[in-house]
Amino acid sequence: MNKLLMEENDRLQKQVSHLVYENGYMRQQLHSAPATTTDNSCESVVMSGQHQQQQNPTPQHPQRDASNPAGLLAVAEETLAEFLSKATGTAVDWVQMIGMKPGPDSIGIVAVSRNCSGVAARACGLVSLDPTKIAEILKDCPSWFRDCRCLDVLSVIPTGNGGTIELIYMQTYAPTTLAAARDFWLLRYSTSLEDGSLVVCERSLTSSTGGPTGPPPSSFVRAEMLASGFLIRPCEGGGSIIHIVDHVDLDAWSVPEVLRPLYESSKILAQKMTMAAMRHIRQIAQETSGEIQYGGGRQPAVLRTFSQRLSRGFNDAINGFLDDGWSLLSSDGGEDVTVAINSSPNKFLGSQYNWSMLPAFGGVLCAKASMLLQNVPPALLVRFLREHRSEWADYGVDAYSAACLKASPYAVPCARPGGFPSSHVILPLAHTVEHEEFLEVVRLEGHAFSPEDVALARDMYLLQLCSGIDENTVGACAQLVFAPIDESFADDAPLLASGFRVIPLDSKQDGPAASRTLDLASALEVGSGGTRPAGGTELSNYNSRSVLTIAFQFTFENHMRDNVAAMARQYVRSVVGSVQRVAMAISPSRLGPHAGPKALPGSPEALTLARWISRSYRIHTGGELLRADSLTGDALLKQLWHHSDAIMCCSLKTNASPVFTFANQAGLDMLETTLVALQDIMLDKILDEAGRKILCTEFAKIMQQGFAYLPGGMCVSSMGRAVSYEQAVAWKVLDDDDSNHCLAFMFMNWSFV
What we know:
The protein is an alpha+beta fold and 753 residues long. Helices cover 29% and strands 26% of the residues. The chain is built from 17 helices and 26 strands. The protein is elongated and about 100 Å long. The termini are far apart. It comes from Citrus sinensis (Sweet orange). This is Homeobox-leucine zipper protein ATHB-14. Keywords: DNA-binding, Homeobox.
């Protein structure tokens, strides 16, 4: 493959030189030709579909009238030459993207720009499809570019050389609730080269290029696409070599400073566009060849459509465009959660449903929020949210969402946050070639709140899309999106998407300005409730931040709108609180106990606590709790988390009952609780009477010599189940100043009775 690509590169370099020469000659001919000889036979085609178009009043190329076909062809040929010089040459300073998956499953060679105008990415790879099919797929941008809201071809102009020029208006979604969405006004040129290669290249039409004026941006910010596109060369014996280049200027200066890295990262562009296109092509190639077999009787195209609908529904919720029917509800005084409503019934189910059956339907309500996270890898957080749903989800809210799909959809008048957690089972449906995205069904076990709710004690189902959970991937957005479905799970089932999106902020600076708190208000310097953490200006150069966006959608009846809005606000605030606590617990921070995200007063971050627990155990008992000598960084925390014995910490206060503050996975399993609910459990509530007596007897010994071995016995989980253990160890956990921080327990060989 390497040899083939090198030969391809040499051949294309020569092709570029030849095209640059031809382009210069053509430009010279166009400039010297009298205006009266210009062929205007297609001018009516250019103007069709364009309302309110006019020639640019101050073109920077006065000798070129780009509002006619000949002028547009000159722009197109210029774009072609620029694109080819980027695709196969050094017009952009390219550096190979790190963290790419090697081996036969790799999508190809990916590079990103360094120190150029805007951000750019390119990829090159082999695909077992013919060039025409590839071009057809890639031109259908909404099918593979998840951020593409719409792409309208407003004019099609055939060129004399057998090619086609298209004038295109494209809208894209904003990735967060904190900045406006972008749109593009583009010229796209499709043609064939002498060697049989297909080229599709595009660029923005601006005042500098001349040409027709595009639709007004309205609520969008007009972004610029510099020469981009794809080159497809057929290979002998079948298949094609593809070169893809994406080069855009997203007007980063128009967004809040803290978010600019999202718009200045070539790695994020590579993941979202360049690699997404290459993966999509490879996916279809493997499906076409029969390499991928999906169970459940679903066709791959149907499963892909489910993924696209979930992603699109979540993007619609985050952006809340006015032309989709969204309008903001007045605030309840807090600025942290935005609530919008959409009263169009087609928003939820579509026009194929008979709405006369639901006269009270009020519409769809969306509650959303964004916040900054410090030192929490996006992949790790989303993977945790996926695997530990009970840490943040509320059964009452899930029951309300599920009830909206029933024949009598409003059996639950309103959700009742506060229900106990339910267990969930993940049933895989499909995954993409490199396993970077999963489509799955989640089954939630049903519970009844009270005798009159027995009808609700049935299992509920969610269709869920999870992506970006590989920690080694650079620049990837991690996302968890889900929608309630009923048991029938029809192909046209309505999907009301909710979920989480975490995008890394690949900051170009380190220091106080780049080290703001988790509190969004202070980070964006709006509102008055923001505060900085005590150590906010003293962070070390290690600075990993990301922006988390949360959106939840609910249907409502007209007379219940205000109730549902209040519930949604309360629920999103509850989820934000849960996510912050989870982020604190799993943060592999290297900053020490006083920097980074806001924590509970005096609470060290997880990595520091793991080190203290291990070190204190060694000091007091002389033994090794973890293989600390061979561990560095996050590995210590991971080993503590996955330790087979139940390890937990509780507060060390003389004037109050000890309360649990931390437990590893085995500890949470033994107590039958979650990290969030753990802090509501007191030590004396889980020990039986004999255990409490032994602990009281041994407590002085623990405080004096630092540890004590406790005999086997019984305790009880938070759900009231009896647990036996063979032996327990209790020891004092000392901080870096050798002060008492908490009390640790390890229950060995425990099991439910």
